[in-house]
Amino acid sequence: MLERSDDLISEQAYLVVRGVRPLAIIGTCEDDPGTLQAVATRLKTLAGGTAIPVLVPGLYPGNRTYGYASHAWVVDLLGWALSPACTEGQRHRIIGLLLGYSPDEIRSFEELGCGQRAIWSRLPDETSSPHTSTVETCAHEAS
Q1: Measured on CA atoms in the order 70, 79, 98, 32, is the torsion positive or negative?
Q2: Which of 24, 116, 122, 123 is least crowded, fewest Cβ atoms below 10 Å from its Cβ?
Q3: Domain 1-101 fold
């Protein structure tokens, strides 16, 4: 946290306040009291406007994810998305939406990451409708 510039942190808070995205994740830190106090103080000092400083348990034991949120429900949803109760596929989708990506952008990312190569139509002499052909399937598609 201490290596992040004040300008970078303030810019993330500004983007949340202006409604560009509901969440800005700045980074992760260790889960010790001294570090948490330093991170919380710096986030609060640089928040500006109505940005809510966020410091939630991270994906891995012993770390925290920090940044800014626009609303309390965003903090709650991020906390759940980072918990073991949330599947990996859903985690990526939720965090993508919270970071301001559109549903179409998330779908495109998933399709490219899953090996989809083409959408094809049958030849004119075939009687079935067009469909998508995938080279491989994603583990998180069932999520």
Answers
A1: positive
A2: 123
A3: PG1857-like (3.30.2190)
The alpha carbon torsion through 118, 124, 128, 133 (nearest 10 deg) reads: -10
Among 64, 60, 63, 18, residue whose Cα is nearest residue 43: 64
Residue spans per domain, the chain: 1-101, 103-143
Token pair belonging to 30: 């260790």
Residue 9 and residue 42 in contact, taking contact as beta carbons nearer than 8 Å: yes
Torsion, Cα 126 127 128 132, to 10 degrees, reads: 30
Identify the residue whose tokens are 């052909």.
133
pLDDT digits (tens, 9 = 90+) for 64-81: 999 999 999 999 999 999
Please state whether the predicted TM-score (pTM) of the whole model is above 0.85: no
Burial 83-96 (b: 16+ CB within 10 A, else e): eeebeeeebbbbbb
Are 21 and 100 in contact by the 8 Å Cβ rule? The answer is yes
